[in-house]
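Z., the sequence and structure:
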Amino acid sequence: MEREGESVSLTWKNPSDSDFAGVLVVRSETELFSYTEQSSAKQIGTEIYQGKNESYTDSISENLEYYYLIYTFDNNNNYSKAMVLKTNPAITNTDNENSQDNNESGQSQTSTTKYKSLAGVSS
């Protein structure tokens, strides 16, 4: 996962299971670590992607943190447990010597955590 400003890029590797049907991505501004079951997460979060691609770019608000749950599912709609990812608010004013009152620079910093494989998650 890579966050830059108002954008989060999620990438993964789909499993090679013969009955693999797709990936579901749910986003929330609320902590979702205890909602790893797909049905529970969709009640709290927003489904933002479902398909077979191996990436998705989400448009977000720069000053909020977000939680993403990524599931794989098979042809019988059996869902894996979620891979849970968290983004931090984008960092502005990258000069550590400036105080918050001197935040006119408007610079943003990339916050990066990469998770690439869903292949180990069984459905």
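The longest helix spans residues 38-44. Strands lie at 2-4, 7-11, 20-28, 46-51, 55-59, 66-74, 83-87, 91-92, 108-109, 111-112.

Let me know what you think.
H.
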